[in-house]
Design brief:
It is a single chain. By secondary structure, the chain is mainly alpha-helical. The protein has a single domain, classed as Multidrug-efflux Transporter Regulator, Chain: A, Domain 2 (Orthogonal Bundle), CATH 1.10.1660. The chain contains five helices and two strands. The protein has a two-stranded antiparallel sheet with strand order 1-2. The protein is globular. The two termini are 19 Å apart.
Length: 107
């Protein structure tokens, strides 16, 4: 289910990152700057979700500090290790999982 824009709730569900963490990361990382609509709600695009998944991998899984994660993003997004699954594929798989979960709940 591809969309042009995602709400913070949808992004939180897709990435499994709490909304308050997303807002914090927005204040720390220049690479993450979702636009706000007229109502003041954040609107995330596909590339924002990919950035969030990369940050989640660096900070929550590989235990980088925010400064370390900033350096990795500044250096082009690679931390020197072989990436097993591309971030864009992870995003698509997580999005599919959320869609299927919601579909199952409706049955």
């Amino acid at each position: 289910m591809k969309k042009l824009y995602y709400s913070i709730g949808e992004v939180s569900e897709i990435t499994d990152v709490d909304a308050h963490v997303l807002r914090y990361w927005e204040s720390v990382f220049d690479e993450l700057s979702p636009k706000k609509n007229k109502a003041g709600n954040r609107t995330y695009k596909e590339n924002d979700i990919e950035t969030i998944l990369k940050l989640k991998e660096l900070i929550q899984e590989k235990k980088y500090s925010t400064k370390g994660a900033q350096q990795v993003l500044k250096d082009g997004g690679t931390d020197g290790e072989n990436e097993e699954v591309p971030v864009s594929l992870k995003k698509d798989l997580k999005e599919m999982r959320v869609f299927l979960k919601n579909l199952l709940e409706k049955l």
